[in-house]
Each structure stands twice: as structure tokens, then as C-alpha cells.
Amino acid sequence: MSNPFIGRYAALSDEPFIVFLVGVTVHQPLAIRHWLPVVAAMPPMIRELEARPEKGMMSARLFFSLPSIMAVQYWRSFDHLEAFARAADDLHLPAWKRFNQAVGKSTIVGVFHETYLIKPDSYEAIYVNMERFGLARAVEHVPATGKRLTARRRLGGDNEPAVITPE
């Protein structure tokens, strides 16, 4: 059971950060021995990163939309993300090598990632009666008032709310 914050909140970061989407899509569900190791590699990597905040991952959450599984991750910088991806003593690099050896160019399972560099004042987020979710789990969670009241204001512009919301 979640514990929502009642009211309107925004995510706030004065520093650039990375949004990293990474996932797998199972193309041949009956080929379990080929795709299960790929899918099973994700949760331990996330746990490793959560236990070691100095690695730079600020938050992660898994989402299931079968036949795909995706992790949405927030990182302090691309340098942190790349260092983790290439570090021989972390879980990712050996898993990446195993994937290439075991699955290679097979169509059994696919892997994807997307990396976005987000700069201050180039994003907006709103959470109404929600627990800390998404970006708000990774950065400061602040009341959505004043310059954070509307989407345009959160992006650095100015306007009036289209709908009056309770304060």
C-alpha cells in the first residue's frame, strides 16, 4: 500500500540529470532458457545500484507490459551511467557479454535502451495525491505552487491555471 502525499507536488532539480529507459522484449515466449537469464539480470543490477548510491543512479522502477519489461532510471550524469555499464566489477558488463554470447543475433529476445540528458528548466512533472513516483523519487519533491503551479511555469514560462485547484 502506498502512502500518498495529499495535494499537488512537483519534481525539482537545479542540476542536469539522465533519464535512462532500458528493457527487454521477449519475441519467443516458449524459448524460456534463452530469455529468462536476460530478464532475470535486471533486478539484481537495480538492487546493486540502489545499495551503492555513489554509482550515480538516483532512482529506478520496473514496468511490465508483456511481452516487454522496462526499467525507468534516473542518473546523476551520463558519466555515471557509462561507468556502470563498462565496469568489469559491476553486474552489467558480465551480463551484457553473456547476452551477446547466448542470444547474439537471435530473434528470441530483444534489448533496448534510450538515454536522455535533461537540463534544468527543460522538464516538468506534476504529482497529485501520489506517493513519490518517477522523477520525484530521484530529485527534490516540492509543493506545486507559484512558479511550479502550471506546466508552462514549471518549464520557465508564465501563465494562469486553466483549472482552479485546491491548495
Structure commentary:
This protein has 167 residues and is α+β, with helices and mostly antiparallel strands. The chain has 2 domains: 5-13 and 119-154, no CATH class; 17-118, Alpha-Beta Plaits. It is 28% helix and 32% strand. The longest helix has 11 residues, at 92-102. The model has no long low-confidence stretch (mean pLDDT 93).
Structural class: alpha+beta
CATH domain class name of the largest domain: Alpha Beta
**Shape by Cα distribution:** elongated
CATH T-level fold name of the largest domain: Alpha-Beta Plaits
* Distance between the amino and carboxyl termini: 25 Å
Sheet having the most strands: 4 strands, antiparallel
Reading the helices and strands in chain order gives: EEHHEEHHEEHEH
Number of helices in the DSSP assignment: 6
Portion in beta strands: 25-35%
Number of DSSP E strands: 7
Indicate the topology.
Layout: E1 5-12, E2 17-26, H1 32-40, H2 42-51, E3 57-65, E4 68-75, H3 78-86, H4 92-102, E5 109-118, E6 126-130, H5 135-138, E7 140-143, H6 151-154
Antiparallel strand pairs: 1-6, 1-7, 2-4, 2-5, 3-4
List keywords for this structure.
single chain, 167 residues, alpha+beta, Alpha-Beta Plaits, 2 domains, four-stranded antiparallel sheet, three-stranded antiparallel sheet, elongated
Describe, in short, the structure shown.
With 167 residues, this protein is α+β, with helices and mostly antiparallel strands. The chain has helices at 32-40, 42-51, 78-86, 92-102, 135-138, 151-154; strands at 5-12, 17-26, 57-65, 68-75, 109-118, 126-130, 140-143.
